[in-house]
Every structure is written in C-alpha cells, then in structure tokens.
Amino acid sequence: MKSLGYLSAFLGGAIAGAALGILMAPEKGEDTRVKITDAVEDFLKKHNIKLSRKEVVDLVDDIEDATEDVIDKVVRLITAAALTIVFCFLLVIIVLFASFAFAFWLEKYIGMGWSFILVAVLHLLAFFMVIHFRKSWIEKPIVHFLAELLLSK
C-alpha cells in the first residue's frame, strides 16, 4: 500500500512538472490546455489507468491551479530572500559605520587602542548573543515564515 502512495506521488509530480513546462511555453491558453489534456490522456493510456474525459479535464484544471500556486509561492519566496539580503547588507554597513563612530568618540576618553578593543568586545558579545538566541531570533521566524508560505492555500 505504501508503494502505491509513492507511485501516485511520483506520477503526480511527473504530471505537474510536465504541465509546468507546457504552461511556461509561449502559446495560447487553449492550445496549452489541449496539449496538457492530450499528454495526460496519453500517460493514462500508457499506464492503463482509466479515467473519463471529464475526470481528465478536472485533473488538468487541478494541475493548472497547482502550477499557478507554486509559481506564486516561488515568486514570494524569492522576493523575501532578496529583501532579506538587502536588509542584512544595509545592517552590516550601518553597524560598521556606527562602530567606527563609537570607537572614535570613545578615543578622547580612553584612548584609540582601548576604544577599538572595547568595540571589538561589544561585537563579540553581540555575536555570542546571536549564537545563543539563534533559535528564537532566527530559526523559528524562518520556519514560521516558510511554513506559512508553503502550507497556505
């Protein structure tokens, strides 16, 4: 029974992949639907699976809906990744300039060497805090975001 589940998952993935490839082709919608329907019917005949024409059309509609959903989620994921990269880059630049400004401000009170050592110690402290709280600050929000994005309908 478990192998039947794997087989149906494989077949569904193969059909969805073929449909995605056909849907990305620059043709009219009706021509694309006919190609997908014909491909599904050929696949079903080849593997001796019996479905009516209406069931095949419904399956093609489901594949198209799933393909649009996958494309939407991939676009949202890529957008979120790009924004995260830009945000992290800007944050690094801000921290770098703020660190130099703080070190030069401290110079008149404790000297140049000690001010940069103090800034380095603060960076190490921040690094160890991020390592210590990485699950609640980084991992859980990422997992929550991905679960919400990928598991939502």
Protein architecture, described:
- With 153 residues, the protein is mainly alpha-helical.
- It has five helices and no strands.
- It has helices at 2-23, 29-46, 53-110, 112-132, 134-151.
- Helix 1 packs antiparallel against helix 2, helix 2 crosses helix 3 and helix 3 (53-110) packs antiparallel against helix 4.
- The longest helix is centred in the middle third of the chain and has 58 residues, at 53-110.
- The two termini are 28 Å apart.
- The model has no long low-confidence stretch (mean pLDDT 81).
Briefly say what this structure is.
Helices cover 90% and strands 0% of the residues.
Q: What's the arrangement of secondary structure elements?
A:
Elements: H1 2-23, H2 29-46, H3 53-110, H4 112-132, H5 134-151
Q: Give the biggest beta sheet.
A: none
Q: What is the string of SSEs from the N terminus onward? A: HHHHH
Distance between the termini: 28 Å
Write down the Rg: 27 Å
Q: What is the approximate shape?
A: rod-shaped
Structural class: mainly alpha
Strand content: under 5%
Given as residue ranges, the uncertain stretches (5+ residues, pLDDT < 50) are none
Report the average pLDDT across residues: 81
How many strand segments? 0
List keywords for this structure.
153 residues; 5 helices; mainly alpha
